[in-house]
User: Which sequence fits this backbone?
């Protein structure tokens, strides 16, 4: 099969999976809503469908796609297969931006303000990463910069929430740092999706530069890539997509780490070719995880961020072990 | 005809002067070898000529315009550059790797018929057509060197600047890569390579530039530029050329007194 056809087949498969998962997501949960309830607006479960299941499903798809795409772009830019908005601290910076608006009492004025500040936080996160890792940023320096950023931003989130006059501070810290899709409103969806779409579109324009970066920074410059512009575009795109996602759900890690890896096996390692499959696979993964979380015993009290971390950490470990085997 | 030139280029790295007032002009259709001891500033000179480094003084000029004044894409279409010890971060297929040479021509998405034709021709010229679907990271050193040259050729540059393209290759693959570079010059492009192997430089190049201590100490036909007094000055070697069957051979007799 030619690479083009292979990619088309993989994309079609991922979309089919997404449609199936979306169907299950609308039906499954503490209350099962059979398809028969769908045609009847008078059914008491109608509210569950329109006010809970639909926004939740759509948000899972949008946020999963944003994280998968951002992960693919950040891995391409840093040339590091361990990069992801969570690992690199971009998501934590977004959470810090969002939480600052709560701390300062601005969030109550407008939900857009919280989203805006989350996006600024995420874009600032990418900019700081590039700055700390340096112009010739090697794979390791990006990860170290991410560790620094992530630690500081998470501490900032906890601090701001602890100091805010809020009796539920402890549980709020938890929700921001281990994101959740539960009880999101259609408004959450409407605030997040436009920015995710915009950020995704911006990220997709970097494909050519990310491909060229395969041969290193000097090599990419020699091929005619303006690196400064690439950095700014990635910061803007990841800022919009990750920032809007985190504002709606809190930090959900590992989606951006896992999906580009799985897709690399299926469609090859070319960074530009990885982006769209990673976005769809990210949506698949987050939606599947969220369905799983809803069906766990305990009545859906496990947050999807916790579930992703529980899935992601062993995945990270397996990656490290396989890298060690290759080097050893 | 295209012209690439260094005008009084000076570069300092970490406060230490590396290049001091280099004046050179290069001719298209020729292979120019830049040789000199380690740390002489050959790579720095090549990067400056390619517009990838801003010199402290002077400038590189392409057809009478400063190279640094060209937009990156326009510059990249004219000047192909192969770095020393090239990095390859991802396990790309050879075809996708060679296609990177078209970066400066590509639109945001997809590739044009010209792109595909240039990639196909570059693969064919380097004998890499059968390797198109192979993973670049699994190639041998010689195959990889050919893939690198194919990537540069895919960009159809008027100038090909290669920093030690033959390092790490066995003698057979050196000959092969050398012949490819020679062929690029025969077709009209200017080829500038840095080399360590002096007999190889003497065979491959039309012109040899010897850089030592940040200055050009010789410039001319290989046997003139690499004459015994120059080698003594550049490398501290007592050496002379003997005529071999395939070409000139360097006979090193001693280190000169410092």
Assistant:
């Amino acid at each position: 099969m030619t690479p083009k056809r292979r990619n088309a087949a993989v994309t079609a498969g991922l979309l089919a999976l997404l449609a199936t998962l979306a169907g299950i997501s609308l039906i499954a949960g503490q209350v099962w809503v059979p398809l028969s309830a769908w045609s009847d607006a008078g059914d008491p479960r109608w509210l569950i469908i329109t006010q809970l299941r639909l926004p939740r499903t759509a948000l899972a798809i949008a946020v999963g796609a944003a994280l998968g795409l951002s992960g693919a772009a950040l891995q391409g830019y840093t040339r590091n297969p361990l990069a992801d908005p969570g690992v690199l601290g971009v998501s934590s910076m977004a959470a810090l931006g969002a939480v600052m608006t709560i701390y300062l009492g601005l969030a109550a004025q407008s939900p857009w303000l919280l989203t805006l500040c989350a996006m600024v936080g995420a874009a600032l996160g990418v900019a700081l990463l590039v700055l700390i890792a340096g112009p010739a940023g090697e794979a390791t320096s990006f990860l170290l910069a991410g560790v620094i950023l992530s630690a500081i931003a998470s501490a900032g989130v906890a601090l701001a929430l602890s100091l805010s006059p809020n009796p539920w501070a402890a549980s709020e810290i938890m929700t921001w740092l281990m994101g959740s899709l539960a009880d999101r409103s259609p408004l959450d969806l409407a605030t997040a999706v436009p920015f995710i779409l915009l950020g995704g579109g911006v990220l997709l324009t970097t494909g050519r530069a990310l491909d060229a970066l395969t041969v290193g920074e000097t090599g990419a410059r020699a091929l005619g890539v303006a690196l400064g512009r690439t950095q700014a575009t990635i910061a803007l795109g990841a800022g919009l997509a990750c920032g809007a996602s985190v504002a709606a759900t809190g930090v959900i890690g590992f989606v951006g780490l896992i999906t580009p890896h799985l897709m690399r096996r299926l469609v090859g390692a070319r960074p530009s070719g990885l982006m769209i499959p990673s976005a769809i696979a990210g949506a698949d993964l987050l939606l599947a995880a969220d369905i799983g979380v809803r069906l766990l015993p305990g009545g859906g009290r496990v947050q999807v961020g916790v579930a992703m971390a529980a899935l992601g950490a062993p995945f990270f470990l397996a990656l490290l072990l396989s890298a060690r085997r290759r080097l050893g | 005809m295209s012209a690439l030139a260094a005008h009084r280029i000076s570069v300092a790295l970490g406060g230490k002067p590396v290049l001091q007032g280099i004046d050179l002009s290069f001719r298209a259709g020729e292979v120019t070898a830049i040789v000199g001891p380690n740390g002489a500033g050959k790579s720095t000179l090549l990067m400056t000529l390619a517009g990838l480094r801003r010199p402290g003084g002077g400038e590189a000029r392409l057809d009478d315009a400063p190279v640094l004044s060209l937009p990156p894409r326009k510059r990249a279409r004219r000047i192909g550059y192969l770095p020393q010890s090239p990095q390859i971060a991802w396990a790309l297929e050879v075809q996708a790797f060679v296609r990177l040479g078209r970066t400066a021509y590509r639109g945001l998405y997809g590739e044009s018929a010209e792109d595909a034709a240039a990639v196909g021709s570059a693969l064919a010229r380097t004998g890499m057509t059968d390797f198109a679907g192979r993973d670049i990271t699994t190639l041998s050193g010689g195959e990889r060197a050919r893939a690198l040259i194919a990537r540069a050729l895919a960009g159809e540059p008027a100038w090909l600047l290669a920093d030690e393209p033959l390092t790490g290759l066995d003698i057979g693959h050196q000959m092969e890569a050398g012949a490819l570079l020679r062929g690029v010059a025969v077709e009209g492009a200017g080829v500038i390579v840095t080399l360590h192997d002096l007999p190889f430089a003497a065979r491959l190049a039309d012109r040899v530039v010897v850089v030592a201590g940040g200055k050009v100490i010789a410039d001319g036909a290989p046997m003139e530029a690499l004459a015994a007094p120059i080698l003594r000055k550049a490398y501290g070697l007592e050496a002379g050329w003997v005529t071999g069957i395939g070409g000139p051979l360097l006979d090193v007799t001693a280190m000169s007194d410092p």
